[in-house]
């Protein structure tokens, strides 16, 4: 018995060690993907807020600014996202689109929730264009300290780095990704060490953890203090990624990385920069790089550049993932999505998004030229998204956690006050560059809305022409339409009666195969669907099967795989010889003027013409695919 107990204890110990090892490895991976943006914010945040405060770093000002940074990181990142938001998920997935799907579409159709979620998601594209530009620029500007003569070449070098970053995307980032975690671990260790060394010169800077310093600064600095909040917000612009990437790593590893490594390192780095200012006075150069001994400056610049590239990579990958979600939920035109690695579903590439982001990002770098100028454009998009997230979190507290109104209002209201303050401060930067991400967000939101409205209108017009299946099949002989040998698979949006594409094909071909399968793809308001719930089948008439396939909004539909599933359940079709049919609709405005506005129809038609081929979107064999063209009036 003693041996058995020993074996049991040994097994439990081994299991616990395995769990700890797995958690550590996942936390390290999360460190490289999730925290790149917020982890590189010390490069430019304190420098920006010192300039906004007037450039005179007195002890009162420095301690007030550091206290604002500390409590902003604590309230927004630690409390709002790590402690609260990450407890609300849509089948394990986080982020504003997943939250929108859970609250506004999965439970009931509530347009205002959908609108808030979509606009918040659209604004992330604006952030995705600005983040690489400001991060790489701020890192390379350190070269001015090491070699002043290189100043004229910083902008061209930034453009070259950014171009290279986007050019490597088609090859996938699986191999590079494995190095992200260790590199970022080194980065956080270095910035923490530099901060500690600087704090030794002026340890009194640690008093900034007292919130009274923040309150005193805000109450005594007037309008300047309000404007400074726009710069303070730069320290949390990567916080939304913690929530959005929860589905990739899980809440546990992200929380562990934040509490054990990221949060302490950021606080030490900011405190170290503040200590340097108090010990040495104001500096015209980047405060972050002044913490580094001259002999190590060049390696630090190289490390910072690599860290900012990693931060940019995370933003770009996030834009790819969000695009795929929007496509599957019916809010964006079909685009070609490449799976670049079998190691992880998140390793994807969306060419259209990549090249558009590259053009916009390089254009922003060339237009603003300096990280200080880009800081004016940075923040307003993320502040708006965070405000939208808070509104959705309030609803989740009431409906998912069943909190009473008072408690939900107290918690969400506290977050909202902070969000509104930062949103208002960032809104003051609208004319200086803040209009850029807003315009990008409005453009993306417009695309989403027009596509979705056009999709709904087209479905309504097509489904309205359905006829009962018995009536359709019974009338074939009278119409001179013959049943011919073979199997036909029709992809249709219809879930009842006779699919319009089947009736249209039979009428024009004057024939219909003996065995017919009508396949309808439904996107569920959750990220994944279990294989056992993947497909359902019903033989609604002799040799006429209706198949309904269900996929989550993070999955890629596969018609061929679905047919293999239902064939084992009695669907007698010859998949090797079957012919596949899809509708290729062209749209035009209704002559009676009762449909969608003509301008909306025109834009929807343009997006429809340029969307990815349906065979690629649903994995259908092109060599046996027939496209049926139809004109639909919207």
Radius of gyration: 28 Å
Mean pLDDT: 83
Biggest β-sheet strands, sense, barrel: 6 strands, mixed
Spatial gap, N to C terminus = 78 Å
Strand content: 5-15%
- What global shape is seen? elongated
Q: Indicate the percent of residues in helices.
A: 55-70%
| Total domain count | 2
Helix count equals 26
Q: In terms of structural class, how would the helical and strand content be classed? A: alpha/beta
The strand count comes to 8
Brief sketch in words of this structure:
With 634 residues, the chain is an alpha/beta fold.
Could you characterize what this model shows?
- There is one protein chain.
- The protein is an alpha/beta fold and 634 residues long.
- It folds into 2 domains: 28-98 and 125-370; 464-633, no CATH class.
- Helices cover 63% and strands 10% of the residues.
- The protein contains 26 helices and 8 strands.
- The protein has helices at residues 2-33, 36-39, 45-52, 59-84, 96-106, 111-140, 143-146, 154-167, 174-199, 211-220, 222-232, 239-244, 246-249, 251-280, 287-290, 297-328, 351-368, 371-377, 380-399, 405-427, 430-463, 469-474, 500-509, 559-567, 598-610, 614-618; strands spanning 337-339, 348-350, 482-491, 511-523, 535-541, 544-551, 579-588, 625-633.
- The strands form 2 sheets. It has a 6-stranded mixed sheet.
- Helix 5 (96-106) packs antiparallel against helix 6 and helix 9 (174-199) packs across helix 16 (297-328).
- It is elongated, with a radius of gyration of 28 Å.
């Amino acid at each position: 018995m003693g041996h058995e107990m020993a074996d049991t204890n040994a097994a439990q110990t081994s299991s616990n060690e395995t769990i700890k090892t797995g958690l550590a490895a996942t936390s390290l991976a999360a460190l490289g993907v999730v925290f790149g943006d917020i982890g590189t914010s010390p490069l430019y945040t304190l420098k920006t807020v010192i300039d906004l405060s007037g450039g005179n770093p007195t002890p009162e000002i420095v301690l007030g600014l550091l206290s604002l940074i500390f409590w902003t990181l604590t309230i927004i990142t630690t409390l709002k996202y790590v402690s609260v938001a990450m407890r609300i998920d849509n089948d394990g997935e986080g982020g504003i689109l997943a939250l929108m799907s859970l609250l506004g579409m999965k439970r009931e159709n509530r347009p205002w929730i959908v609108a808030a979620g979509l606009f918040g998601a659209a604004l992330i594209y604006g952030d995705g264009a600005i983040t690489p530009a400001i991060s790489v620029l701020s890192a390379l500007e350190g070269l001015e300290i090491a070699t002043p003569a290189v100043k004229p070449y910083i902008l061209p070098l930034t453009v070259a780095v950014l171009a290279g970053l986007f050019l490597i995307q088609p090859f996938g980032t699986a191999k590079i990704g494995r190095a992200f975690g260790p590199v970022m671990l080194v980065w956080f260790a270095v910035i923490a060490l530099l901060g500690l060394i600087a704090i030794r010169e002026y340890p009194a800077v640690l008093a900034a953890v007292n919130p009274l310093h923040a309150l005193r600064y805000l109450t005594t600095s007037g309008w300047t203090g309000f404007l400074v909040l726009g710069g303070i917000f730069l320290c949390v612009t990567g916080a939304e990624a913690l929530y959005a990437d929860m589905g990739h790593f899980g809440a546990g590893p992200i929380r562990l990385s934040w509490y054990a490594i990221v949060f302490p390192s950021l606080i030490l780095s900011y405190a170290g920069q503040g200590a340097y200012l108090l010990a040495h006075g104001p500096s015209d150069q980047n405060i972050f790089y002044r913490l580094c001994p001259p002999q190590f400056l060049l390696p630090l610049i190289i490390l910072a550049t690599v860290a900012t590239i990693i931060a940019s990579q995370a933003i770009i990958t996030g834009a790819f993932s969000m695009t795929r979600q929007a496509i599957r939920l019916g809010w964006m035109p079909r685009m070609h999505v490449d799976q670049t690695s079998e190691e992880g579903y998140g390793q994807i590439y969306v060419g259209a998004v990549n090249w558009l982001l590259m053009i916009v990002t390089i254009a922003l770098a060339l237009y603003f030229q300096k990280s200080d100028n880009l800081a004016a454009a940075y923040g307003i998009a993320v502040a708006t998204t965070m405000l939208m997230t808070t509104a959705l979190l309030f609803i989740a507290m009431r409906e998912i956690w069943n909190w009473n109104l008072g408690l939900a209002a107290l918690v969400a209201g506290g977050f909202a006050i902070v969000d509104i303050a930062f949103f208002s401060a960032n809104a003051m930067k609208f004319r200086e560059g803040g209009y850029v991400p807003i315009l990008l967000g409005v453009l993306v939101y417009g695309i989403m809305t027009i596509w979705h409205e056009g999709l709904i209108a087209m479905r309504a017009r097509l489904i309205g022409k359905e006829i009962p299946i018995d009536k359709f099949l019974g009338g074939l002989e009278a119409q001179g339409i013959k049943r011919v040998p073979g199997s036909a698979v029709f992809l249709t949006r219809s879930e009842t009666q006779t699919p319009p594409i089947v009736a249209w094909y039979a009428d024009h071909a004057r024939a219909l195969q003996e065995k017919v399968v009508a396949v309808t793809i439904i996107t569920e308001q959750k990220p994944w669907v279990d294989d056992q719930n993947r497909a359902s089948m019903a033989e609604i008439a002799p040799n006429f099967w209706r198949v309904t396939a269900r996929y989550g909004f993070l999955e890629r539909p596969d018609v061929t795989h679905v047919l293999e599933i239902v064939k084992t359940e009695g669907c007698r079709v010859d998949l090797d010889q079957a012919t596949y049919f899809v509708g290729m609709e062209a749209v035009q405005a209704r002559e009676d003027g009762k449909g969608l506005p003509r301008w909306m129809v025109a834009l929807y038609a343009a997006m429809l013409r340029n969307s990815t081929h349906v065979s690629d979107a649903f994995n259908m064999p092109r060599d046996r695919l027939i496209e049926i063209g139809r004109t639909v009036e919207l």
